[in-house]
Amino acid sequence: MIHDLNTVWYLLVGVLIVGYAILDGFDLGVGVISLFLRDPKDVRTCMKAIGPVWDGNEVWLLTAGGALFAAFPPVYAAVFSGFYIAFTLLLVALIFRAISIEFYSKVDSDQWRYVWSWAFGLGSLIPAILFGVAFGNILRGLPIDVRGEFTGTFLGLLNPYALLVGLLALAMFIMHGAVYMTLKTDGELRERMHAWALGGWAALAILYIPCTLFTMLTSPLLFDKLNGNVLFYLAMIPLLVSFPCVPASLTGHRYGRAFLASAATIASMVAMAGVSLFPYLVPSRTDPEFSLTIYNASSTPLTLKAMFVIAIIGMPIVLVYTACVYWVFRGKVELSNEGY
C-alpha cells in the first residue's frame, strides 16, 4: 500500500507542478514581454491582464512546495538547501513583481511607472529562467551524498545544460504568455502579441532539439527505462499533437484553441520528464545509489494517508476557486482610471 501512496503522491506533486507551469507560466511570459513594450498603456494592459489571477496562480507553487515537504521531506531539505541562493533570488523577484502590479498606477509620474515597469518585467524574467535552471539541474542530477545532503555550490548549478533548459523554459513561457494576451487584447497590440507567440514557439522549437540531445548525453539515467515504457509515449502524444497546433491555430486566429494547445504542450513536456525520472525525485551525480526516490525519501505511511485525505478535500476547492476567478474576469482588458 505504501508503494501505491508513494506513486500517488509523485503524481500529485507532478500535477501541481504542471498546474503552476501552465497558470503562472503565462503570467511570467506576459511580464517578460512587457520589457519590450514602449507604451505605458501597453504595460498597464499586461498588468491588468494578469492582475486578478496571478496570486491565485502562485497558490499552485506554494501547494507543490507544501506537498513535497509533507510527502518527501528529505527531498525538500536537499533541494531547498542546495538551491538556497537561487530560491532567495526567486523570492525577491516574485515579491517585486507583485509589488509592481499594485504600485504601478499609484503615482502619476513617468519615472515612477518606469521603475515599476522594470520591476514587473525583471520580476518575471528572473523566475522564468530560474525555474528552468532548477528543473534542468534536477534532470541532470544533483551532487547528493550518502546522507542525502547537497554537497555542491551555487555556481555549480549554473552549468551549461541547466542554463539551456532555463532558456527553453523562457521561450515556453513567452509563447504561452503571448498566446494568453491574444485572448485579452484587441487591435494592434493583439497583432504584436500574435507575433510574439509565433516567435516564442519558433524559439522553443529550435531549443528543444539540442536540449533533448544534451539531456541524452548528460543524463543517460533518464533514458534507461524508456524502451517499451508505454506511459512515456502516452505522455508524448499530446506534445506531438499540440505543438504544431499552436502556430496553426494562431494563423487561423483561433486564439482559444492556441492557448489550449500551448497549455497541452507544457503539460506534455513536464509529464515526459516526470515519467523519465520515476521513481527518482532527485538523481545523485555523486553515485546513483545515493539518489532520492519516492521510496527512500518518503514520509511515514500514516502521514501519506493523512495528507492524501487532505488533498482529496483541498484540490477540488482549489480547482473550483480557480475556475470561478477566470470566469469572473473573462473577456478583453479595458483600461480605465480604476484598477491597476
Q: Can you offer a commentary on this structure?
A:
It is a single chain. The protein has about 350 residues and is mainly α. It has one domain. The protein is built from 12 helices and 2 strands; from the N terminus they run αααααααααααββα. It has helices at about 1-35, 40-50, 55-70, 75-80, 85-105, 110-140, 155, 160-185, 185-220, 230-250, 255-275, 300-330, and strands at about 280, 290-295. The protein has a two-stranded antiparallel ribbon with strand order 1-2. It is globular and about 60 Å long. The mean pLDDT is about 90.
Number of domains: 1
Residue-averaged pLDDT, rounded? 90
SSE ordering: HHHHHHHHHHHEEH
Strand percentage: under 5%
Strand order, largest beta sheet: 1-2
DSSP helix count? 12
Distance between the termini: 50 Å
Low-pLDDT sequence parts: none
* SS class: mainly alpha
Gross morphology is globular
Helicity range: over 70%
Number-wise, the strands total 2
Largest sheet: 2 strands, antiparallel
Radius of gyration: 20 Å
